[in-house]
Amino acid sequence: MSQLSRLIAILTLLKSKRLLTANELAKKFEVSIRTIYRDIRKLEEAGVPVTTIEGRGYSLMEGYSVAPVQFTEKQANALITAELLVNQSKDASFVEDFNEALTKIKSVFRTSIQKKSELLQSKIHVFNPTYENISSNALSEIQLAITNFNYIEINYCKVNETDVSFRKIEPYAMYSTNHKWILIAWCHLRNDYRAFRIDRIQHFKILQEKFEDRKFHLLTYFQSCPYNDK
Predict the structure, then answer these.
(1) Which PROSITE patterns does the entry mention (predicted)?
(2) Measured between alpha carbons, how far is 132 from 90 in angstroms, rounded to an integer?
(3) Helix (H, G, I), strand (E, B) or coil at 208
């Protein structure tokens, strides 16, 4: 049994209002008690209100129920395919956040859909013929800065250069091309919009200070300043 299937099964048992001990769960699923402890933490991290009764076991908070969301097989297949594409991303934060979100979505799949989605996952693969050993771990934080209008300070190194420059920027938009995420921002050093490859940002800091929206439009930017690696 996969971890996801076991988590769903544990949640189903907890929804029955029974008080369950870690030892009972470990015997039922033929895993170690330590594995059950990890599973319970996973459920808690996913927002499931598991109550621990000292010396007695686990139960669900009274009144908790899983939203009655239903996915068709084609919709589930689309999510599985998206997962494989996302996992090609060079940004670790984006991959982690997407996979955690998808785990929550999968928890409401019907059993038949879950089995077929796992089968499909074993039968498709995404090749990346243009490998480049550069990665990032900033995408999720930068997305928050875009939607909350927070300044970002970055140390940036251009392609084919070794010098690192300090920039204070206003992040406005991003897009992906050739497996690279590009951030469009107003650069206070250049006093203009600039494109920054996120995997070329060596260090960054999201500031609490907020900027005034310049009403940036991505399509207008593309028309006036098409992207090239900087």
Answers:
(1) HTH_DEOR_2 (PS51000), WYL (PS52050)
(2) 9
(3) strand
**Which are the contacts of 157, defined by CB distance < 8 A and separation ≥ 6?**
163, 164, 165, 200, 202
Residue type, 14: L
pLDDT, tens digit, 9 for 90 and up, residues 104-141 = 788 778 778 888 988 888 888 877 766 566 778 899 99
Tokens describing residue 203: 């260090």
pLDDT, average across residues 188-213:
95
Side-chain-side CA neighbours of 185 within 13 Å: the count stands at 29
What is d(CA 34, CA 156) in angstroms, rounded to the nearest whole number? Answer: 43
Nearest to 180, CA basis, from 92, 99, 94, 91: 91
d(CA 50, CA 37): 12
pTM assigned to the model: 0.61
Q: Tell me phi and psi for residue 110, to 5 degrees.
A: -65, 155
Q: CA distances (Å), 220 to each of 152, 185, 214, in order?
A: 23, 14, 13
Residues 6+ apart with CB under 8 A from 72: 113
Q: pLDDT tens digits for 160-179? A: 888 999 999 999 999 988 77
